[in-house]
Amino acid sequence: MSDDEKNKITVDIHNRKYTVVGEESPEQIKMVASLVDQKMDEIQFAKPSYDTTQLAVLTALNTMNDYLKLKQDYDALINKDRNEDNKR
């Protein structure tokens, strides 16, 4: 995909504007930014003394942890499906 075909959108995350360029649709980019913003707000509510860098790192850690759990669940389902197919 060339630069001309990429989407460029400005989003607000934790009261700061970021310009995101990517192949995803503007709606997808906005949704991802909204989820990051929500997670940062959630962490800040629990730990109001944390600065933006701490919030960003904890948000990244939480998000990656969620991703890894989902990936493990997905892999387990795929393996289960393959094992069932092999039994047939």
TrEMBL record:
GO terms for biological process: cell division. It comes from the Bacteria. The keyword Cell division applies. Coiled coil: none annotated. SUPFAM superfamilies: Cell division protein ZapA-like (SSF102829). Transmembrane segments: none annotated. It is found in: Cytoplasm. The keyword Transmembrane helix does not apply. Gene3D superfamilies: 6.10.250.790. Its main location: cytoplasm. Homodimer. Interacts with FtsZ. Activator of cell division through the inhibition of FtsZ GTPase activity, therefore promoting FtsZ assembly into bundles of protofilaments necessary for the formation of the division Z ring. It is recruited early at mid-cell but it is not essential for cell division. NCBIfam families: PRK14126.1. This is Cell division protein ZapA. The lineage of its organism: Bacteria, Bacillati, Bacillota, Bacilli, Bacillales.
